[in-house]
Amino acid sequence: MASALGTVGVQLVRQPGCGSCLPPCSLTDEDLAAYPGLANLLLGLTSHMDSSGLSVHLAQQMEEARKELQRCRGNWLKWEAVHRLLQEALRELGTGLSPRDQKFLEVLEQQLLVAELKRMLDLGPSLQDTQPSLLGLEASDLPELLPPNQELEQMRKHLPTELEKRLKSKCLALLGYYLPESDGAGEVARAAMLGTLAECLAAEKRRLRESQARHQELVGLLEQQKAAYPQVLLRCLAILKRLARELRLNAQSELDYFSTQYLETKCNAMFFKIRLEELSILLETYTPEKVDVHRMMRDKLQAALSQEEQDLATSRKIVSNYETLGPEFEELVKEYARLQAIIENRRWALREFSKD
Predict the structure, then answer these.
(1) What distance in Å separates the CA atoms of residue 244 and residue 256, rounded to the nearest whole number?
(2) Which of 36, 39, 41, 42 has its CA nearest to residue 22?
(3) Do 295 and 272 share a structural domain?
(4) What is the domain extent for residue 142?
């Protein structure tokens, strides 16, 4: 065998002075021998392309756009979190709050409604000429809907404290979910845990992303091996057939025996490697905690199924007992139902008379 590469995907390694490497290419030794300049051409492209196939300039633009999108998402999430906190606070209106808190929430609700109206009325010049205003309102009408300036000032002074209190409550709830043992800790310890909560969550997120990337990498490697091993085995089989034809007059039986042993060993090795990769992926995917949860779910479902089967058997037994009673029992059931209806009607009449 001239080379062990076969048709396995060949990835051009990074050359000195090149900024990136090309994506994996399915090249064989025959392809490289048939086109001598192909390898040099691909190596020359490594300075203009990255591993995903994009040009270096376009990849930089994509990275800048991704960072800008991430920044915009972060800003939007901050304001969205504040807005949701305010909406949750407004749901507490009329729930027995103190007069001060009740007044604060009413002024806050009125301020938010006016801001929402202003946003809805703030159309472009072209749309304002073609579409009527909402409910006949104009932007000049909105200041009349605002609360008095004194109430607005009091609300604005109290708003940071209220947001801080609610944000702290949310953070403590998140901390209790992420670290249940923190519920029994003191205020100082919980405050210290809150200081490192963001870093812990970011580290956990990075770990999950690395695990997902590793999983995808293992899946890709497994697929490559699944595609490569059969072709390698086919080439080995072709060589063995040629040797068998050349040596069958001298050592046919011995050659057949060794050929069979070789193929069997090669197949077993391939299956063992594939099984090893499969077990590695399963081991990373199904942790002991997930297996325990699945086992608990299966036990609960089996218990529920057995209970339903017992109930079904009981119901069938009752139905069979009813069926053995014959038509006389059906007449008694109808008479019982009729009497029940009469009793219910008379009870209703007594209740109506009692009302009068």
Answers:
(1) 7
(2) 42
(3) no
(4) 78-178
Candidates 162, 148, 144; CA nearest to 89 is 162
Q: How far is it, in rounded angstroms, from Cα 243 to Cα 262?
A: 13
What is the reported pTM? Answer: 0.40
- What is the rounded distance in angstroms from the CA atom of residue 314 to the CA atom of residue 312? 5
Give CB contacts under 8 A, 24+ apart, made by 117-122.
Answer: 117/142, 117/145, 118/142
In whole angstroms, give the CA distance from residue 53 to residue 44: 14
Pairwise CA distance, residues 48 & 5, whole Å: 26
Closest CA to 111 of 81, 79, 153: 153
How distant, in Å, are the alpha carbons of 1, 31, 172, 177, 233 from that of 238? 11, 20, 68, 61, 9
Give domain status of residue 157, yes or no: yes
Is the domain of 247 the same as that of 313?
no
Digit-by-digit pLDDT tens for the chain (356 residues) are 333 333 333 444 333 333 345 555 666 677 778 888 877 887 777 777 776 667 777 888 888 998 999 899 988 888 888 888 888 878 877 677 778 778 887 887 877 777 777 777 765 444 445 565 656 566 666 676 677 777 778 888 888 888 888 888 888 787 788 778 777 777 777 777 777 878 888 888 899 999 998 998 888 888 888 878 888 888 899 888 887 777 666 666 777 788 889 999 999 999 999 999 998 888 888 888 888 888 899 999 999 999 999 988 988 887 777 767 667 777 877 888 889 899 998 888 888 877 75
Q: Is residue 339 part of a domain?
A: yes
Q: Of the candidates 234, 253, 285, which is a domain's last residue?
A: 285
Are residues 255 and 171 both part of a single domain? no
Tokens, residue 336 = 């019982």
Q: Is position 203 within any domain?
A: no
Amino acid at 116: E
Query: Does residue 200 sit within a domain?
Result: no
Domain count of the fold of the chain: 3
